[in-house]
Every structure is written in C-alpha cells, then in structure tokens.
Amino acid sequence: MTFEEIISNLKKKIYHPIYFLMGEETYFIDKISDYISDNVLTDAEKGFNQTILYGKDTEPHNIIANARRFPMMSNHQVIVVREAQNIKKIEELESYAKNPLNSTILVINYKYKTLDKRKTFPKLIDQKGVLFEAKKIYDNQLPAWIISYLKNQNYTIAPQAAAMLSEYLGADLSKVANELDKLIISLPAGTQITPDHIEKNIGISKEFNVYELQNALGERNLLKANRIVNYFGANPSNNAVPQVVSGLFSYFSKILNYHFLEDKSQNNVASVLQVHPFFVKTYVAAAKNYNIKKLVEIISILREYDMKSKGWGNVSASPADLQREMIYRILH
Which of 97, 237, 249, 285 has the most crowded CB, counting CB atoms within 10 A? Predict the structure, then answer.
C-alpha cells in the first residue's frame, strides 16, 4: 500500500489494527503516524484511549498488554510506538500480530531500518494490517514530488521553480514540505508558483542558483557562469562547493547518458533521464556542446573538486577559488 492510499483510507475512516511504518524516509512515517494520532479519536476520547510509547522505554510484552485492552467509551484505542527501532527483539510482537484486536489501532514507527520481509513477522503484519516501507526520495525524483505535493494542495508550479527548489533544499522532504507550506500561505489557491515567488518568499535568487549555473554551462555561456560562481563565492553559506558539485554531477551525468540513448524521442529521454519533459530540449542542446570524451573529463573534474573542497589535495585555495577553477576547467 502506498503512502497516498494509506492517507486516503484513513480519511475515509478505513482503519487497520496494525500499521508498521519502517524505512529511511521519516517524512512519510511521521505524516501517517501524526494523521492517526490527530484524527482517529476526538479530543474527549484521547484521554482514555490514546497511548504514546517510546522504544527505549518499552518492551514487546508491554506493547501487547496495552494493545489487548478494550477502548473506553470509544470504538477504538490508538497506541503509537515511537522510536520502535530501539526495541530489542521486536519480532516478539508476532504473537499479537497473529490475532490483533480490531478495536486497537497499533502504530509502530520503525525509522531508518526495515524488517526482512521474507520472515514470518512482517508477513503477518502485511496480512493483518499495513506494512509500509518509506523509501528515500532521490534528488532526481524531488521536482516531481514537489509538483505532486503542490497539486494536492490545489497549486501548480513552473518546472523551473521546482528545479530551483530541489537544487536549493535537497531531498529532505520535511524541510521541503515546510518551505512549501510557508510559501502557499502567502498565495491564493490555484496559483502557479514561479521563480519570482520562490525568490520573494523563500530567498532563493532566481538568477544565481545551481539550476541557472547548469543552464549557463550547458550553453557554454562563460560570462553568465562566471557571474553565478562569483555570486556563490560572495554567499558561501547557501552555495557550498559539495552542494554545487552534486548538482553539476547529476546534470552532466544525464547529458552523458543522453549520448548513449538509441531512442531520443522527448518522452523516452524524459523517462530515462528522470526529468520533466519541459527540460528535455535543454539536455539536447547541451549534448551538442559536450561530446562524450569531454563529459567523462568533466565528471572527473567534479570528483576532483569535491575531494579538494573536503581538504584532499588542497592546501590554501578558498571555496570561491575552487569553484572558479572548476568552472574554468569545465568550459575549457
């Protein structure tokens, strides 16, 4: 069951006796757990029927004892186990998973780890309740996630603006969602969010960011690229060398992959490179400016400057100097 399906069912008051929420992406785990905590019971019911337990302070037999209680003056009781990854021998909950109470909604937050789905315990949970694995969102999936998140809030976003946000914020979904929530508070429902909105409300320059640096390099626009890296040098806190290198590595890797595609139709390029179709034309244009040999050299350059930014082979060059050197070598 997907995150969207779980939330949709909860909104329809379709409940399961066990929700085992595991995996690396804590945003999804928190959203499901918080929705159940906030919405299943009324405020009056929560006093007797909602229990919060913590993995460091509890054991499987305590969880089972709480879960086997019947609710008081309510159809359900909710038990949320936070930090369940700290529970030793969590598989001892198997005895309860075999025959859970339908009046209990047991929510287990098992962050940063996963169960072995081949074993009996997770199979039982999957049969009797919800076994959900929250997988990490990769950087190249973030623009699509931003578009989807805003669509659910009745907003749209220009592809350029989604790219700006993803490059600037990275794939920390809690951070991204928080920034998006702050942004849409100031805008009427139905608004299409543009780079101007991003610059005004979040503080990301629409001219001087990694996304625009990628475009400048793709066009081999030396003047524009130098203006951007000079801005980065003057504003290092938001434009660290590893962050810039990461964005450029992803960009040039996609251009390299484009060269090896047999089917260079827009839809196939967008699918394989995992980019919005709007951006395909920019990769096609950049591929004309960089052949395979040069792209392999650029990727090597990026790796070199990533190491230098972390102190390897760099004695005295400042981050600003490193970025200027790196851009010069990419373009020459």
Answer: 97
